[in-house]
């Protein structure tokens, strides 16, 4: 029983931050039709920025609770700086081009950002310890977990709910949905599609950076961080269905529980378990569990 509880809690914790990152990836694909290989790099930059912001706040003598605000501000800063540079300065020149070319462009961006993070922050790891002890420990049965892990679960719920509400219950969200269904028709009705692309790309980068910022206290922030994240994020959106918020949530939960089960039962199959689950899902649902219905072409 204790092992089952441990698997469930650890899987939910892992799924929470993964959902935030994958949500940004699936949002960018849904709106811009871009499979962004560089998404993991924005995650890594968010983690590095959070480490820098938290260290700066500590050096100023601010209270440890400020570290949470610092991590949020780090994600906002990453989106505010990198979104215009990336979308306006690079991606907009390739809209409507072949999908393979877009993948190659984002892969080139991924390589550039990998080297840029090493130039800015260096090769040594960073540690963000202040936020991790703010919430004490939580006892469940005979097991004890760090309270910060449950903050991530709450954050994932809030972020997922906010994105869903923004898309389905606001005027701007309706405009974004119109562009998702048909950018040409939306443009003919007076929608500024270019502005919608910029908005969606900015939110996608913010979500990636937010996931990186709030997982920074749980990991060692070091070069190569983005590689593993983008691979697992792709697994999530492929399982759930590209462009689906519900799919990202279910996909993250499936991947999180599969990984947690493997870690506690068959440790050598940790990464292998994720790909097995993805392969099984694709055997029966090649387009993912929640792929949007598409119009039939004649």
UniProtKB/TrEMBL annotation:
InterPro entries: ABC_transp_permease (IPR001851), BCAA_transport_permease (IPR052157). CDD domains: TM_PBP1_LivH_like. It comes from the Bacteria. It is found in: Cell membrane. The keyword rRNA processing does not apply. The chain crosses the membrane at residues 12-35, 42-59, 65-83, 95-113, 145-167, 196-219, 225-254, 261-284. It is a multi-pass membrane protein. Keywords: Amino-acid transport, Cell membrane, Membrane, Transmembrane, Transmembrane helix, Transport. Belongs to the binding-protein-dependent transport system permease family. LivHM subfamily. This is Branched-chain amino acid ABC transporter permease. The lineage of its organism: Bacteria, Pseudomonadati, Pseudomonadota, Betaproteobacteria, Burkholderiales.
